[in-house]
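protien #1 (seq + structre)
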Amino acid sequence: MEKNSLIKRITGSREASLLLVLLGLCIIIQILSPSFLTAKSLQDMVKNNAVIMIMALGMLCVLLIGGIDISITSTLAVSGMAVGMLLKYNVVHNTFLLFLIAILIGAVCGAAIGLVISGGKVLPIIATMGFMYIYRGFAYLIAKSQWASAENLGDFKNLPWKKNLVLDF
């Protein structure tokens, strides 16, 4: 009887069912491609998805308190574009300072949305949807209709931190 109740609890839990599906998919992919769950493969996945994982942690915090933020990619776009342009036009060369600037821009963007939601009593979905377009517009204005890719960053080959940079597109 206990075995049935354990199976019933596992299959009745949405999270446990999703975990079982994920494990099943990982096993199938590992059988089809033996290099899937190697240390190198897992390390590459973490490196290439670090930004997404950081955004997911922030989104997790928002979701845990019952909110939603659909402007997160636009916030990333405006902070990334600002830092990219600072680097492109040789305004700032210090990597640590660039990270601080990006974090500060993201914090200001998040605080603006938070003030509108809490002070203006606007629903989070409405506020973040509006700010999503505002921040995309800011990114466009900051860029002056230019693209700030790695190839356009000026003397990119001589930057001191370039040795540790992984650019997998």
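ok now protien #2
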Amino acid sequence: MYDAHKVRINRLFNESGNCLDVAIDHGAFNEYSFLDGLEDMDSVVKQLVDAGPDAIQMNYGQADVLQTIPGKRKPALVMRTDAGNPYNAQKHRYMFNIPAHFEDPVLAAVQMDAACVVVNLLLLPDEPELHMQTVRNIAKIRELCTHYGMPLMIEPLVMAPNDERGGYQVNGDKSLIVPLVRQARELGADIIKADPTDNPEDYHEVLAAARCPVLVRGGGKKSIDVVFKEAHAFLAQGARGLVYGRNIYQHPNPQRIVKAFMAMIHQGASSEQAVAIYEGE
């Protein structure tokens, strides 16, 4: 019997069973600082396709840039199905995160030939209604994913106030991340895009809570040596790959950093080897 879900999973994960997903879906969150490096999407997508990650994460309104490129050798599409305002540099009177397509968020992904869809599960201080919104989003999208045979990636995000910049920032507290990851699995995640923990050596607890493939979320921009060291620690504990955005597309040479990540994810390269690949040695 034809299993559309399995077919799409096979497109997303490399023969190694792992995946590098480059996230460039930042425009849906209406934050100016996220667009640095994404001004010319045609150019960005061409660079990434040439670099050859396993997947590129995009929104419906930009996915055509990837999917109209001719030929078979291009990354799988992971399509975001929601949009909200938790990433802005200020707190809002009303916080929201809603489906990008109200009637059928997953049909748009099917029409764009996506291999997977992704949706947020948000936990912000004193914002229980926002958390409820995202649980409702997942309940609807899970049902539609089952109908279409579409893998569901849930992105559990624990956030804390950002006192310096304003708005919110990632909270790496494992005591909050682990139960939210468990909730994502209980709600029906096939794949979980999980935050890094403050101590990378704790990540095995996140993996145990997930009981499904976990891809580590990159989050904010960091120095390249720190990025590689942390990524190696997560992968060494059993994470099945990475979903990195700004730590790829905001670097001067995204192709080299993709090459380095691919070596880590699929060939088990060390962080030192990754730095050498990135530096062209």
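The chain has a mean pLDDT of 93.
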